[in-house]
Every structure is written in structure tokens, then in C-alpha cells.
Description:
Order of helices and strands: EHEHEHHEEHEEH
Number of helices: 6
Number of strands: 7
Radius of gyration: 19 Å
Amino acid sequence: xxxxxxxxxxxxxxxxxxxxGHATRCIPLIYTLQQLGCEVITASDGASRSLxxxxxxxxxxxxxxxTPIRYSRFKWLFGWAMLRLIPRFWIQLKREQRWIKKTVRxxxxxxxxxxxxxxxxxxxxxxxxxxxxxxxRTGYGRLADQLARQILYRxxxxxxxxxxxxxxxxxxxxxxxxxxxxAPASPLCYIGVLNRLATLQxxxxxxxxxxxxxxxxxxxxRTILEKIILE
Length: 231
């Protein structure tokens, strides 16, 4: 799909709605795209969509398919709980694939930036996926890790590039998770740590002042972590 030279590039930015982290790290990217003269359209749902609407009230904000997720309360059941979700993940991928074809056609999208959404690759539109989850650790041994990585890379490789929100060397934000020994076929590009507050001027805080902790993510693990912090 060739862009019209008389029309700005239309870029779809679509963060996952598993907590607010995916949406917040897309905010500096959206500002950069606007500075480059692109027309940005966002696509998400729930709290992530609400956040983007509040931050960018003048943009077009679409509602995209979403499958609610809930983690296991017990860490020893976490892997099995995720296995049970595989059929739902597969259905979600199919829904995203149908949705992106209609959306590209309707809004004449020229490029796609997908944050951890594996079903938004389009065969005729260049796209990148933002993720730091490249070296999967299942907790069930190397064979399970390798199988999970192969499945993950199958979908990652449908994008033209992988933008890793981390630095290429240690010390890094995500450690081994974002620095796999076996990289996907799609080129990796380490774009640095994304911070929606990076443009704000830091202010000194009192040494004995309160500490603000912002938590989001699938339940019940979000609440479990909150209780641990408060204790």
C-alpha cells in the first residue's frame, strides 16, 4: 500500500490492555510520530484506551478486540493457568487479524505499531511490534522454553521489525528477557527505555516523604503485589 504524497502517513498505534504499561510507553512514541508529521490513530480498549483518549483528545481512538485475562493466584499453577488460556489467545489472534484487515482498508493505514499484540500484522502494510519478551522462561525446563519461543517467534516474524524498549547492553531493564541468545528472524532494534514522564523537569523530593507506587496488570497478581508492598 503506497502512501499518498499529498496526505500525511497514517500510523496505527495499538497497545495491549494488560495493565497500563503498554499504553504509557506508547505515549512518547506517539508524540515523536506527531513531530515527524504523521497522522496517528490509536487502537486499544478499557483503561488503556481511556488513558490515550485523555492524553491525546484530538486523535482518532478506535476500540479493538480484547480478551480479558486473569492470572493464577498461586505461582506453582501459573504455567498451567497460561496453558488453559491458549485457546483464548488463539481466538484473540484470529479476531485481531480480521479486525486489522478491515481497519487498514477503512482508515487507509500506512504503518502499524503494535505493542505486544501479535495478531495485528498485515501482509501489505509495514508493521513493527514493541516487546521485551523475547527469551521466554516457562519454569518447566529448556524444552518448554524452546517450544514457547518458537511459537512466539512465529508471530513476531510477521512484523518487519521488533522494537525492544530496552538498552542493548547490561545493565538493562529486562535482563535476559529482552536479550535472547536466539533472536527472531525480524530485525531487533533496541529503542531505549520508554518513559512518558521523560519531558518533565525533575523536582527534588523530601527524604522522608511518601513513596508512590503505581501498579497495574492482570488480577489477582496485581493485588497480591500491592499487599506485599504495603506490608
